[in-house]
Known about the structure:
The chain is of the alpha+beta class. The protein has helices at 36-53, 67-75, 81-84, 122-139, 171-175, 179-188, 220-246, 249-265, 271-286, 295-304, 307-314, 320-335; strands at 14-23, 58-61, 92-95, 101-105, 111-118, 144-145, 149-150, 162-169, 191-194, 207-212.
Amino acid sequence: MxxxxxxxxxxxxxxxxxVRLARNLDKIPFKTRASKEDxxxxxxxxxxxxxxxxxxxxxxKLKDIDDITKLTLIEKHVISPDFAIDKEEIGAILINEEENxxxxxxxxxxxxxxxxxxxxxLENLKNLIVEIDEKIDGLLDYAFSEQYGxxxxxPTNVGTGMRASVMVHLPALTLTGNITKVLNVxxxxxxxxxGIYGEGTQSQGDIYQISNNQSxxxxxxxxxxxxxxxxxKVIEQERLARKYLAKNQIELxxxxxxxxxxxxxxxxxxSEECRNLMSIIKLGTDLGIIKELNxxxxxxxxxxxxxxxxxxxxxKNLDAYERxxxxxxxxxxxISE
Length: 337
């Protein structure tokens, strides 16, 4: 079972963890100043070393991946939306069967190494990505400065080049009106808190992405430790808000079961409706209110009701109206499993 269908540590609040490293190859201009020939050189070098890396990684050119598959990878947060719609088609990915490792080639930097896990798993992800990074470093020369560290296209990534992040589900803080206060505190501690697709995006279904905003003058271990500390505080606040909501049991159960009734018995649902309903339903499942669902079914519904993954799951292209009908059918099927 792939990581995005699993449940990990603290998965009632922390949906997933990711650690990313930005790297560039020495003596090749950064993408912002590179020619198409330069970018092709990067692709050739990475394709050449792929068999030596292991981990079951496969080299796939972006132009050879169909649009639906690209969309499924965006929805799983494995590739970025901007990377997927690159018109020059000079990108590629290295990805394994489990999809917990994905290296984007010629995104903003020559290489964006990424590792993923369900729940709170930052330490293990850091160890894995350092291992992969050292393998690549032994085969290729990185752009590196003794004074500044790893050199990157964006100044905010210079230094370690590390961006660690967690996706958190905070419905109770939203319902109790405390979400803004918590978001401000997180930002005040040198962290970014954004929508689920990163910078410039909105929260969807009460899901937020927390990540470090500093990579220069700080070690990889410090980045992980700081993010872990802040996330633990957010988990604590969300769980306290859930306890507060549970004091008014009838009101909470009514809200949860109204959402579940709409989800389970509607004939058609838009992806936005589904996402908003699932936020309350996941809360109800985590609190033991909804007995008809479990963590596995919630994860499946969250994944297979998204536009790309719904079509991939059913094996056919659908227009918006057809998707809304099929979405309800797939939900009923997952609930009855």
